[in-house]
Each structure stands twice: as structure tokens, then as C-alpha cells.
């Protein structure tokens, strides 16, 4: 059935892809030249000195030590984000032994090359630690480079799943782009308290109608076991993206942890990584694989599934690591032709387990290929182009891993629809521009009547200030909350989730409210219109620092406008409002990241410390 899928690609998709390739020609050529040179040098392990090699296998068992000493088989590096505090990463505890065993059966070896930090935005929401969250992505990239710097590996597998971890691992992997790379997910936790019920309890708590005991019980029923959180935030968007870009095995993203199928997929991923090295005849380096077409496929997947706005930062930074220059205009143009096929919380009531049961990634990829919205002629870790990703894994009667064609029809059209009858004709993301700079807005969860908001500004310099005003009862009527000095240079660009319950309460009371901020909200943005990632940011001379209380602002997600309706002469005479950022620069390790705040780029270039 896969062979019957049309091969043509939509004209706009092709146009944007070509535009990216043209823009990136010089940087991409230099990158490919660099990784080709690294590949020509061949596997480095055998070229190391005897003492260097002995250090590298001193702790191995006799058979692995013999294999590494002789240098005959491939050696697989494992870069892991395991820790047992975070639900998404706890299942990775047992993966290294599964991978080592698979490597031995395949005639190779595997070693844990190193660990990378894995922090949870859910734990740090509204706390000082959140101001390190975005920077942790670049720390993870640096840590990945350190892990692979021993140059004793012929390929690598990457164990990471959540918000900043996967993008950081991709950036790090691309710095060793001559090596094959396979990403191995752990899967989502089983369904608990429905996400819409959890959101309702949060809002009732914000209104003072239920106590903390009720809130804690709801949260504990929602986040209750191993695996990713089940809403469609950044972590699960990561998994979609890794699959649609060909870095996962087909159908691997949303299989629950600690199941026989999950273990079978992990074993197969290790085997596949070993088969892709330069020692064999099927060499697929990750730096060559992740080309312009692969990144366009990732952005199309983001739009088609209504994924996390964080990826307007992450995909740009990831692509730059491979010499590819993406812009927010590319995101916007691709959104204009990509149908929205999914309704998963916060864009609907379903969670990712319901999405997977309704047809999941195999169905989405099949529909997008058939609609001409994906490049099918790309390299993947599975080796058969993107058509193979319409299949789904299963266990054969003998317990072995097998593959079957994915469903041709949605199992639940309230969750997942085909490209001929989507939830909306365009993707759930819009680029905004105007006197305040550029921003993005996620529209897929916002009622159409709220896509245009014109109201006076209420200015705050932290989410705590807004919450205090809400609790004091001083927020009333229509307004647009401007929460500024929340960008990467100011304080690391934290997510501002705790703004959503009070703004949601006010919206439900009939007020027209919206948010404009140079901070982040991520995949859980929800039902309140929010222009986020405003750039230039307030701390970098952005016009958002000029806004005063009462200024009329127009947020128009239909026309793509973010305008301030102030007399131009008055506007031109204004000076930026200063802010005391010192409290955000010390404590909880923040003093260690002064160099990051000084070096970080703008939101539309990925908010990265690395040169682009």
C-alpha cells in the first residue's frame, strides 16, 4: 500500500524547501565538508595510543574488552538523559543493558559514553529554576559533545525525551555529524486524570473555589507513573518530530514504557545503529541525513499536529547546527498550506495515548504524504525513505518485532482526521509582526472569535506581579497583559504557565484578554491568545519595553499583526522602561549562567549561545 502513495510534493512546500537550501548553501556546504573530512579519517578508536585505548575499555567484561582491543566490531556510544526523579526519563535506567546485549548479538559493543542533564519544566514552573530551562538545551549539547569526544565510537544512540533534552541532543549529535545516530524514546505514561479535568481544577484553585488538597490530588492523578506527561506539550512534540524526521524507528514514539513492545523497539534501534556505521555498506551519517527536506518535514509535522511553540526556537537552533538557516517566515509559509489533523490536549480533550490508538504517527505521515505535504525521498534511520513510517510495530506470535501497515482510517475523528477533512485548513501557528517586533502565536487551541483582540495594555515585569494583581481583584475589563523582561538575555526566557489560570478565569468571565510577552509558554499555551517570543526582547532594546499602561494594542492572528496604536510622534519620543533584573541573576545556580545571558542570540534565531 505504501508504494501507492503519490510522490509529488505541494508547490509551496517545494518552494520553501528550495528557499531554505539557497539561503543555506554556503553554511551547509561548509558543514558537509567538515563531516565528510571526519568520515574520511575513519573510525578513530584504532588510531588512539595504547594507553588511550586501555583507558577506554578498562572496566569492560572480557568479551567486550577483546572486541574493543582488536577493533573488529563497531562500538556504539550511548548518551543518556536518565535520572529516576523525572517520570519521562526513569524508564531509561534499564536501557543500557538492553543495548549492550543487542550490540553483542550483532557482533559489536556498546558503552555509556556520558550523561546529560534532564530538568523538568513541570517541576520548575513558576520557580527560579525555570530561568535555567532554556539554557539547559545548550548545556545538553555541550555535554553530548563531551561524551562523544573520546572518539571511540562508530555510531551513537541518544536516550532523551523531554523539552530541552531532545533538541540539545540533536545539536550535540550534529556536532559529530559524521556518526550515525538513532534516537530511542521511552514513551508516554498511561492515561490518568483527563487533562481537561486537571485544567478545570487548576482554574478553580486560581479562583479560590477549591483548596490545595484538591489541586494536589488532581495533579497526582494526572502525573502518576513512568513516561512522559500525556498532554501534547514540548516533550511529546519532540517525539513526533524525531519520528517524522526519521531519527526514530517507525511507530516508536508513543509506545508505553515497560512493555515488551517498547523493549523490542529499543533492541531493534541499537541493532539498526550498528548496521549504519562506516564499517559496513549502509553508512548513514546523521549530519547528511538531517538535510533541508528533513527539517521541512519536521516543521510540517509541528503544524499538522498543533505542536509546541517551543519548537519555533528549537528547530531553528537544531538546523543551524547542521548548517541550515531557518526563519520564522519559513514556519509561517509552511503553516499556510499544512492542514491541522490532530486535536490533542491542550488543543482538544484527548491525550497522546488516545492519539496513538486512533492511528498515531503512521496515520499522520500517510495523510501528509498523500496530500503532498511531506518529502518522502529523505534518508531515515530505517533506510527506506519516509514511506516506511506509515507502518506500525507489533509483536509477532513468537515475540519478535514485526511490522504491519498502519490504519488507513482514523479510529476517532474527534482526535485525528485525514487531510481531506482536517480540523482546520492551515496549521496551528501564526507569525505576528508590527511596531512591537515579531512574535508567534499558537491558534489551534483558541476559539476563532478570539483570534483578534484589541484592548489597553496592562504592563508587568513578572508573572508574579500579574498573579498578585489578579488576587487583589485589580484586573477587570478587557486588557492585553504585557509581561516583559522575560527574554533570553533578561533571565533565560522562562515559561510562564502560571499566567494561564488567572487569564483563563478572566476570559471565562466574558472579558477580552490576551498576553504579549518576550517569554515562553510552550505546548500547553491553551485557550488564551498569546503573542510570545516577542523579539527584539525588552532587555535587548525591543519596543516591548516602550509600552505603557493604557496603550491600545491590537493582536491580529488573522492578518498576522502585532500593533501598538499610539501616536507615532509620542511613540518616537519614548525611552525604554528600566527593570531590575538582578534578582534573576543569582541563586539556584543562575550566577553561573551570566556568560550564557551575555552570548545568547535572539528568539527568531533559536535563542542559542552558539554562533548561527
Automatic annotation (TrEMBL):
GO CC annotation, single? cytosol
Q: Which UniProt keywords apply?
A: 4Fe-4S, Carbohydrate metabolism, Gluconate utilization, Iron, Iron-sulfur, Lyase, Metal-binding
Protein's pathway: Carbohydrate metabolism; Entner-Doudoroff pathway
What chemistry does it catalyse, as a reaction equation? Answer: 6-phospho-D-gluconate = 2-dehydro-3-deoxy-6-phospho-D-gluconate + H2O
Q: Which PROSITE patterns match?
A: ILVD_EDD_1, ILVD_EDD_2
Residues forming the Dihydroxy-acid/6-phosphogluconate dehydratase N-terminal domain are 75-386
- One Gene Ontology MF term: metal ion binding
Q: Where is the Dihydroxy-acid/6-phosphogluconate dehydratase C-terminal domain?
A: 415-607
Entry-linked Pfam families:
ILV_EDD_C (PF24877), ILVD_EDD_N (PF00920)
A GO BP term here is: D-gluconate metabolic process
Binding-site residues, [4Fe-4S] cluster = 162, 229
Recorded superkingdom: Bacteria
- Record's PANTHER family? D-XYLONATE DEHYDRATASE, PHOSPHOGLUCONATE DEHYDRATASE
The UniProt entry's sequence similarity note says: Belongs to the IlvD/Edd family.
* Name of protein: Phosphogluconate dehydratase
Taxonomic classification: Bacteria, Pseudomonadati, Pseudomonadota, Alphaproteobacteria, Hyphomicrobiales
Amino acid at each position: 500500500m505504501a508504494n501507492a502513495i503519490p510522490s509529488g510534493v505541494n508547490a509551496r512546500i517545494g518552494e520553501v524547501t528550495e528557499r531554505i537550501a539557497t539561503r543555506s548553501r554556503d553554511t551547509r556546504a561548509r558543514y558537509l565538508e567538515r563531516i565528510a573530512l571526519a568520515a574520511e579519517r575513519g573510525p578513530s578508536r584504532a588510531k588512539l595510543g595504547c594507553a588511550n585505548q586501555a583507558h577506554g575499555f578498562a572496566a569492560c567484561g572480557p568479551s567486550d574488552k577483546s572486541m574493543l582491543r582488536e577493533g573488529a566490531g563497531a562500538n556504539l556510544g550511548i548518551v543518556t538523559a536518565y535520572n529516576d526523579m523525572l517520570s519521562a526519563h526513569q524508564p531509561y535506567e534499564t536501557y543500557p543493558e538492553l543495548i549492550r546485549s543487542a550490540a553483542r548479538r550483532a557482533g559489536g559493543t556498546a558503552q555509556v559514553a556520558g550523561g546529560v542533564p534532564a530538568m523538568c519544566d513541570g517541576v520548575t514552573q513558576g520557580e527560579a529554576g525555570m530561568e535555567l530551562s532554556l539554557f539547559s538545551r545548550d548545556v545538553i549539547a555541550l555535554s553530548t559533545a563531551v561524551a562523544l569526544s573520546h572518539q571511540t565510537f562508530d555510531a551513537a544512540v541518544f536516550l532523551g525525551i523531554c523539552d530541552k533534552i531532545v533538541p540539545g541532543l540533536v545539536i550535540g549529535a550534529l556536532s559529530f555529524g559524521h556518526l550515525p545516530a538513532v534516537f530511542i524514546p521511552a514513551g508516554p505514561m498511561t492515561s490518568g486524570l483527563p487533562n481537561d479535568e486537571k485544567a478545570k481544577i487548576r482554574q478553580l484553585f486560581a479562583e479560590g473555589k477549591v483548596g490545595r488538597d484538591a489541586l494536589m490530588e488532581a495533579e497526582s492523578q494526572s502525573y502518576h507513573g513512568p513516561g512522559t506527561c500525556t498532554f501534547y506539550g514540548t516533550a511529546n512534540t519532540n517525539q513526533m518530530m524525531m519520528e517524522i524526521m526519521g531519527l526514530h524507528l517507525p511507530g516508536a514514539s508513543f509506545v508505553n514504557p515497560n512493555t515488551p513492545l517498547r523493549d523490542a523497539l529499543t533492541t531493534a534501534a541499537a541493532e539498526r545503529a550498528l548496521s549504519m556505521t562506516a564499517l559496513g555498506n549502509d553508512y548513514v551519517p546523521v549530519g547528511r541525513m538531517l538535510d533541508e527536506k528533513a527539517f521541512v518535514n519536521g516543521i510540517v509535522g509541528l503544524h499538522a499536529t498543533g505542536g509546541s511553540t517551543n519548537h519555533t526556537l528549537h528547530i531553528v537552533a537544531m538546523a543551524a547546527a547542521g548548517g541550515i538557516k531557518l526563519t520564522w517566515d519559513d514556519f509561517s509559509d509552511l503553516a499556510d498550506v499544512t492542514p491541522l489533523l490532530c486535536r490533542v490536549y491542550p488543543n482538544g480533550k484527548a491525550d497522546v495515548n488516545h492519539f496513538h490508538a486512533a492511528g498515531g504517527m503512521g496515520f499522520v505521515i500517510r495523510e501528509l504524504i498523500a496530500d503532498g505535504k511531506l518529502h518522502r525521498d529523505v534518508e531515515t534511520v530505517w533506510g527506506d525513505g519516509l514511506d516506511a513510517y506509515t507502518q506500525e510495530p507489533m509483536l509477532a506470535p513468537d515475540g519478535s518485532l514485526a511490522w504491519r501497515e498502519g490504519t488507513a482510517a482514523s479510529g476517532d475523528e474527534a482526535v485525528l482526521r485525514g487531510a481531506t477533512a482536517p480540523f482546520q485548513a492551515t496549521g496551528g501557528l501564526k507569525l505576528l509582526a508590527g511596531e512591537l517586533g515579531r512574535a508567534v502565536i499558537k491558534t489551534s487551541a483558541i476559539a476563532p472569535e478570539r483570534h483578534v483582540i484589541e484592548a489597553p495594555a496592562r504592563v508587568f515585569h513578572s508573572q508574579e506581579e500579574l498573579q498578585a494583581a489578579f488576587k487583589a481583584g485589580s484586573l477587570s475589563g478587557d486588557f492585553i497583559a504585557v509581561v516583559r523582561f522575560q527574554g533570553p538575555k533578561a533571565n533565560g526566557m522562562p515559561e510562564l504557565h502560571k499566567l494561564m489560570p488567572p487569564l483563563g478565569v478572566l476570559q471565562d468571565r466574558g472579558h477580552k484578554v490576551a498576553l504579549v510577552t518576550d517569554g515562553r509558554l510552550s505546548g500547553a499555551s491553551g485557550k488564551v491568545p498569546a503573542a510570545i517570543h516577542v523579539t527584539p526582547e525588552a532587555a535587548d532594546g525591543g519596543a516591548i519595553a516602550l509600552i505603557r499602561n493604557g496603550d491600545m494594542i491590537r493582536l491580529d492572528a488573522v492578518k498576522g499583526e502585532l500593533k501598538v496604536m499610539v501616536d507615532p510622534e509620542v511613540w518616537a519620543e519614548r525611552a525604554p522602561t528600566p527593570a531590575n533584573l538582578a534578582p534573576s541573576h543569582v541563586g539556584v545556580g543562575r550566577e553561573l549562567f551570566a556568560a550564557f545571558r551575555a552570548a545568547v542570540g535572539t528568539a527568531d534565531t533559536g535563542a542559542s549561545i552558539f554562533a548561527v
